[in-house]
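Schema walkthrough. Field components (list of strings):
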Amino acid sequence: MATRPKPIATPRLPLTRDRVLLSALELADRDGIESLSMRKLGRRLGVEAMSLYNHVADKDDLLDGLADIAVGEIEVPSIGEDWRAALRRRAISAREMLARHPWAAGLMESRTNPSPARSRYPEAVLGSLRQAGFSVEMAIHAFFTLDSYIYGFAVQERNLPSGTPEQLASVAQDILRALPPAEYPYLNEVIVGHVLKLGFDYADEFEFGLDLILDGLGEIRAGA
Amino acid sequence: MATRPKPIATPRLPLTRDRVLLSALELADRDGIESLSMRKLGRRLGVEAMSLYNHVADKDDLLDGLADIAVGEIEVPSIGEDWRAALRRRAISAREMLARHPWAAGLMESRTNPSPARSRYPEAVLGSLRQAGFSVEMAIHAFFTLDSYIYGFAVQERNLPSGTPEQLASVAQDILRALPPAEYPYLNEVIVGHVLKLGFDYADEFEFGLDLILDGLGEIRAGA
DNA sequence: ACCTGAACACCGTTCAAGT
DNA sequence: ACCTGAACACCGTTCAAGT
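Field assembly_structure (string):
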């Protein structure tokens, strides 16, 4: 009787940069990055959009923060690991991250200003290569080849249908309808003769090109 | 004296879908895709934004049209060409297109509905591979590997600095300032020891990874 | 120190009205 | 058939005002 009860059962958590970023990440994962607006994010946090500006400089800063969280999820190989194993594991981890957060590939594109979190990744890849005996020039070549592949694959994966074999089959049927076999025989062959029959696993598909590239780099290293 | 002179020297051209698309393309090339709005495009064409809807279903349709123009600029190799030469030439032409239109890579991502213009490209690549004797499965692998690389490289190129050696050097200096050598020795080595000294040519860099991948595919074909 | 209301300059798009 | 004005539901962001 002496003290008035708190007006609401769950007292509002104080806003912090981390809470803002985490909530933005969940929103982006669930509804897509294009529907992440300062106003919606504010509503989600029970606050007016303008309050967010106390914890984040502007929307660009928010997106920078998301990009840093994303690259931070890429596995860091233990030191002393074989160069091939280290690069392979990092590549697979990067693809998994980009598949988990479909918005991340797009953010990597637009966040061009360097940040510590985003600089650590290329630094580590170049380090693995140099320590393995690649020349500076070859390390640059290898980095571009690997990174282009990883990134490009992730974007293709994001834009192609996925899901259970049944869902995949149903989407494939829709696509086939726009591709008359007489005009597109090879696309039909691939979809009808392979994807619909045997399914499609992005992780497996990714490893084919990854190993092809790593094999090629191995030969260059052996020849050097 | 009999007829009144036309009020303006250059009578307004009638709006057509092609004029709308061409103007949008120029705007995107010059100011970037993010500043391409229906309202600005209308202003550019001397018309209210709403008039554009007589020639284009909506903004999505406009972007679809731009994506179709972009893929249409990728060179189609002459028939009967060696598979390796055909794939190589197409890949180089695709990279050139994506470098010419920095907005195109992003559009390829978002335009997921198939269109004839955009289906012709994968159809042709798969055709080259199948005719060269690759199995359906290997043709899929090869397509993903090549296309991921091309696309990923183009995006990296778009986001990294370019220009004359002097411009490149000045941007590199700015980047270096954010990368203390003690923490990022390998990035420093690459930038100071190689890029600043020898410059950097994206077309050359692209061909390294491209040839590595084509060599790998050639071995698979020989072994099959 | 943090949050808010009102306001500004933008978006894409619909719809009834004009020619 | 094509173009327009007014309107709607959205944006990001600033700024003075509240607590």
